[in-house]
Amino acid sequence: MPAGDQHGAPDATPSPGETPAPSSARVSPAAHTGPGPRGVPADTVRSLGLDALTMSVTAGDGLPELVWSQPPEGLGPELEELQFALGDGPTFEAAGRGRRVMEPDLAATDPARWPAFLPVAARTPARAVVAVPLRLGVAVIGVLAGYRTSTGPLTDTQRRDLTRLARTLLALLLDTVEVPSADGTGAPPGLALRRAEVHQATGYLSVRLGIPPGQALLRLRSHAAAHDVPLTALARALFAGSVLPEDFDR
Hints:
The protein is of the alpha+beta class. Helix content is 36%, strand content 14%. Helix 6 (196-209) crosses helix 8.
C-alpha cells in the first residue's frame, strides 16, 4: 500500500465502461454467503491480500456507520468500533476527505495523522490499512476499508480489484438502499446499522443537557474512554438508568 497513493488515488466513483472486477472480487448473486451485500464471495478478503474487510455508510449525521464486514466478527468490526469511539482513523479520513487512504505500515505512520487511533490500533493485530471512499459525484456515501495483520503494500492487481469491488458495492448500495438516517432507519436487510443505540443516546443526552448533538456525542466518547467501556454499552446503561444524564454534565 504505497503511502503516496493516499493523495489523489482513484476512489469508488462509478465511471462509464468500467471493466468488471475479476471473479475473485466480483459480486455474484450465486455466491451469497450470509447477511451483508448479496453475493460477496467468502474468500474475497483473502483474494485481496487482506485479513478483514468492512463497509460503512454515512448516516444522517455524516458519521461512518459499519453495516457489513468479512469476517463478520473480529479485527474489522473491532477497528471500526474503535474509530467510531475515538472519532479518528482511516475510515473517518476517507469519509471526510473523499480520497483513498493507504498505509502499508501503521507503526511507521506519522503519529500526527491519527493521534487518537494509532496508539490504540497498535494494541491490535492490525499492521496495515486501506480505505476507499464510496463516492457519488462529490458526495461520500460510504467507505470500504481493508485491514491486514502484516505490513507491506497490496499488489497492483489487488489494488485494482479492491477499487472495482468498491465500485460494485457502491452500485449495489445505490440500487438497494436509501442512505440510512442516524436513527438506523433506511438500512436494507443484512445491512442494519450497528450503532442506533449510540445515536439515540446522543439525541437523548442533547435534549436533557440542552447541548448540540455533536457535543453530546463528544461527552459520550469522553465518558466511555475514561471508564474503559464500549460506546454501545454506555448508551444502554444510560437508558437503563445506571448512568444518569447528570454524569455527563461536567
